[in-house]
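Run log // design_07
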């Protein structure tokens, strides 16, 4: 019985890793589509978002099967519960990468994107997502805590984007519509960082049994 459970748990971890890789690719492609003005790549991000949605349903089914047909001990139960929470955040990451892609499809903001640290925000959020999933699979609390500390970097980059936008508008180097598009994109990256932080917090819960929200 335990051997079967461990096989199914391993399957869940593999699917989570794959879903995380889909999220990483979606974020990277959304950023590249923005910086290169590539509408075809933006379209592929929207397709990837649909695959992420399907993967969420598949992992949810595996988790429910583990809960209903097996008898998980406390540590296993925490891991499964955390996985169910994590896939919700990962699905939202896919949605927000899709939101960025939709803006790219409708706007022409390539010239300003690199100036406004969008690439740096994208790289930081990709690293956060990658590390949070890796921390879950490896049960690495230190790595999960590192993700939490990286959220400050993304928040700081978002604030810099806002400040630079104000400067660009003031000097009339960009128009209001473009500024709003860039601000929305930066906000989506900031939200992706928040979701990666949520994932890391659930990783810590799966290891320790304590969630950050219960510490206050």
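design_07 sequence
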């Amino acid at each position: 019985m335990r051997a079967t459970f461990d096989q199914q748990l391993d399957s869940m971890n593999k699917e989570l890793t794959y879903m995380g890789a889909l999220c990483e690719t979606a974020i990277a492609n959304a950023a590249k589509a923005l910086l290169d003005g590539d509408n075809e790549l933006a379209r592929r991000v929207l397709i990837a978002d649909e695959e992420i949605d399907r993967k969420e349903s598949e992992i949810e089914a595996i988790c429910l099967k583990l809960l209903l047909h097996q008898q998980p001990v406390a540590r296993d139960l925490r891991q499964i519960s955390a996985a169910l929470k994590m896939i919700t955040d990962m699905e939202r990451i896919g949605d927000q990468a899709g939101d960025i892609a939709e803006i790219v499809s409708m706007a022409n903001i390539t010239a300003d994107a690199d100036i406004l640290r969008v690439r740096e925000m994208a790289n930081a959020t990709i690293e956060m997502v990658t590390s949070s999933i890796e921390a879950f699979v490896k049960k690495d609390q230190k790595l999960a805590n590192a993700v939490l500390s990286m959220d400050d970097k993304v928040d700081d980059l978002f604030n810099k984007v806002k400040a630079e936008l104000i400067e660009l508008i003031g000097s009339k180097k960009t128009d209001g519509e473009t500024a709003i598009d860039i601000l929305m994109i930066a906000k989506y990256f900031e939200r992706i960082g928040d979701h990666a932080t949520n994932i890391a917090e659930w990783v810590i819960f799966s290891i320790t049994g304590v969630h950050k929200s219960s510490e206050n």
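The two ends are 39 Å apart (CA to CA).
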